[in-house]
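Appendix B, example 12.
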Amino acid sequence: MAIKPNILLIYTGGTIGMVKDYKTGALRAFDFNNLRSRIPELNQLDCNIKTISFEEPIDSSNMNLDNWAAIATIIETNYQLADGFVVLTGSDTMSYTASAISFMLENLSKPIVFTGSQLPIGDLRTDAKENLITAIQIASLQENNAPKIQEVCLYFEYKLYRANRTTKINAEHFEAFNSPNYPAIAESGVHLKVQNHLLHIADDKELVVRKKFNNNVVVLKLFPGISNHVIQTILNIKNLKGVILETYGSGNTSTNKEFINLLSKAINKGIYIIDVTQCVSGSVSLGQYETSTHLKELDVISGKDITTEAAITKLMYLLNQNLTKKEFKIFFEKSLRGEMSDI
C-alpha cells in the first residue's frame, strides 16, 4: 500500500483566505484549521494536509522581503517532513513572491505551488475551491516514489505555470495570470495533463536556502519624451545598486547622447543595468537594431525573455551573492531556475 504524501499548506493572506459575514457584509480571515469541514472535497484527495498560517495574514500589497524570508523559513523547516507545499498568497504580487522563492531555494526537488483566488473562499461563485483543490492535487503527484513536480509553480484557473515565468494580466477575470514566454506545464480539465517535457528535473543535491536580498534597486520604464533629468535623478539615488530598464521592443532605447552618457556614468559607478522588454512577450536582442547597439557597447546586461517580476527578484537575489562584475553579468544572462530561455 502506497504511503500518502504529506502536503503543507502555507497561508500568508489574500482573498482566498477570506469569508464573508453575511450579516454585516464584511470579510474576515478564514480558519484554515477547519479546512476540511469547509471544503469536504479535500477528503477525496489521497494525501495528508497540514496547515500553517501567518499570525497576522497580510494583503499582498504589503508583501515584502521579510515575508518572503518567512515563507522560505517555513519551507526550510518542514522540508524533510513534507512531500509538497501549497502557498496561498494574494494574487496582486504573487508572481513577484513566487519568483523570489524560486531564487531563494537552490536545488529544490519538491513542488511548491502558489495559488490564490479572485473571489473569497466563501463566495457562491468563488474560484478559490477549484484553485486550492487542484493545487494540492498537483503538489501530491508522485512518480517512482518521488515528487513529479520539482520546482516553484503557480496554479490559477486550470493552468499550472512555472512561477518565475508568470505575470498577472487581469484584475477581474478568473484567468488572472499568463506565462507569455513559456507554455503551461500542466492543465486541469476532465483529466490533469502534465507536460513532462516542460518540467524542471532537479539535481540530486542538498537544498540550499538563501533568504537575504538587496533591495537597493529600481524599475525604470522608458516612454517617449521621458526627461533626462528624471533619469539622472533616478540613477543618482543614494546606494542604488541595480536598475531594471524597461525598454522598447527587442531592447531598444533612444540614441540621445545625454541619455547614453547617463547610463555610461551609472555603469561606471558600479550600478548594474538590466535591459528588459516592455512587450508582453518576446525577448531582448541587443545589437539587433541600431537603437540597441549602444547598449551592447556599454555592456548593459540582457534580460532576454525574462519577466519584470522575475528580473527584479533575480537582481535583488544576485546582488547579495558577492559576485564580481563579470560573474554578475554571466549569472544574470543565464537561466538559474528556468526563468529565462537560453537564447
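The domain at 6-209 is CATH 3.40.50.1170 (Rossmann fold). The chain has nine helices and 20 strands.
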